[in-house]
Design a protein that fits this description.
two-stranded antiparallel ribbon, Arc Repressor Mutant, subunit A, alpha+beta, globular, 136 residues, two-stranded antiparallel sheet
Length: 136
């Protein structure tokens, strides 16, 4: 059986984003926001929202119960502050929160109480494994 660990991550995220495009919606504000404090401009790719949601889904599959805070750290970057030294800045929490809500709405992830966070549902595992099998 092929799992997502066997498939190339970049191809998996792109194919998953294509599949999710018809199932989830992109918020109206998504064209104007930056993806974190450390970024200077919004993403140039018009489909960046679907790619981020697919990437979040992959991260939840790999990392188990995970919350918004841990995902913000994963999607963070360097915050360049002019002449001062750079520091790490977390990614946007609103983008991650809304993408998690969209994935919950279509039933690919679910909340857990102990340990707190979100896990992938069997339907979500099947969805990603099917895409990984098509890539492999």
């Amino acid at each position: 059986m092929v799992s997502i660990r066997d498939a190339d991550a970049t191809l998996l995220v792109k194919k998953t984003a294509e599949q999710l495009k018809g199932k989830i919606g992109m918020p109206a504000w998504a064209n104007y926001v930056k993806t974190g404090v450390g970024k200077e401009r919004p993403p140039e790719d018009p489909d960046w929202w679907y790619i981020r949601v697919a990437s979040v889904l992959r991260r939840i599959y790999l990392d188990g119960p995970v919350g918004v805070s841990r995902l913000r750290s994963y999607y963070g970057s360097k915050h360049r502050r002019g002449h001062k030294p750079t520091h790490f800045a977390k990614g946007s929490g609103n983008i991650i929160r809304k993408s998690l809500q969209e994935l919950e709405k279509i039933g690919l992830i679910a909340k857990t109480e102990k340990p707190r966070g979100r896990i992938i549902t069997p339907e979500g595992q099947k969805f990603l494994n099917t895409i990984a099998k098509g890539i492999k």
